[in-house]
Design goal:
Helix content: 55-70%
Distance between the termini: 40 Å
Structural class: alpha+beta
Order of helices and strands: EEEHHEHHHHEHHEHHEEHH
Shape: rod-shaped
Largest sheet: 4 strands, mixed
Radius of gyration: 48 Å
Number of helices: 12
Number of strands: 8
Strand content: 5-15%
Amino acid sequence: MKRLVSITLFAGITFSLQAQIALTLDSCRALAMENNKELLIGQEKIKAAHYQNKAAFTNYLPKLSATGTYIRNQKEISILNDEQKAGLSQLGTTVGTQVKGFAQQLAVAHPELVPLITSLGNFDIATPLNAAGNSIVDAFRTDTRNMYAGAITLTQPLYMGGKIRAYNKITQYAEELARQQHHTGMQEVILSTDQAYWQVISLVNKKKLAEGYLKLLQKLESDVDHMIAEGVATKADGLSVKVKVNEAEMTLTKVEDGLSLSKMLLCQLCGLDLSTNVVLADENMNDLPILLKENSEINMETAYASRPELKSLELASLIYKQKVNVTRAEHLPTVALLGNYLVSNPSVYNGFENKFKGMWNVGVMVQVPIWNWGEGVYKTKAAKAEAQIAKYHLQDAREKVELQVNQAAFKVTEAKKKLIMASKNLEKANENLRYATLGFEEGVIAPANVLEAHTAWLSAQSEKIDAQIDIKLTEIYLQKSLGTLK
């Protein structure tokens, strides 16, 4: 007896040295949700929405910013014009000339003062006064060719027309919306995985059925060949059986091809290599367990409360409602508290100095829109219309969800009836095949009748498999329509 060494990866999954993986339905779902790129994108969207919500909350808090500037000017700012500069530079010379003229006039008028005037004329007043004038000119220089400025600003919103509160609510709703969309994606992945899983189960059973049918026909072919050799059957009977054998072989080939493709699809959904040989836990079950709720237990309020699509539309409606408040706030007065510390070089707090000096200031800024030709009213009405559209989408979705639930419940009931009828048909087909086989062995029934019994048996077996799989799928569709698929 050949034994396979296996390694357990996690619950429900076994990997053998022959690259064979045993999967349950739950493990297929787990692998699909772990490897689905859309779900991974959805998780990142949740993270992004979460951090956007945190960023929106910071609008309630004061903001602190710093600004620095350097400017190189071609020319410096001059407080004195060129004439004033020239006049101050020649202040001593000008004063000296005026004093000499006054002294000459005084000497003419008072000759007795000539010795005194002559002695005073020996003093040099032009040089110190010219120096004083030049120092005044230098003192009035601004030296603004190189300018530095900086500011630290503190801003605290006091009233923004409700915009901050509305935007914060929008980001909260957006985060929850991302979660609901991720939940919707999870349900879609589960649905696709379950469909692929039960498709494989269906084809595995149909493969077994086709193999069994082929063996029956091959035995019948052998029996007919012996009967032809004994002269109790015609070659036409033998050809009819051989045609059915060929058809059964073609059917088996088609089922095997379909099974290979279905397993590839399941592997792709689970993130496995397409060539992986997967063995499903339900392959050897003859009768699948049916766990269905009665239709009377279906509660539409459960669907309304559980469907992530409806929750998403409800959140979208709330977001559009808050957008109305944001639009309205853009045209309402705003109030903010401001605080600054300003620094510059050159500084003017103690004359013009090439030093970094600064000062602080505080104030309140109020902005009041006065006239905008009704723009705010029009934009607010447009936002209200969009909010109403979102509300209508929600109402329409609720109606469609009710229709989906009723359709899913009807399909469940229909699938139950089909399974009951398929089981009864299979019982009759088994009995018919048994009588036909016994009659053929006794030589009282023709090979054509046996072929008909085989064909009816094959059809009944196939219908029962389809009915069982249909039961499982309709159960899944009902759960999804109710929003309880997990």
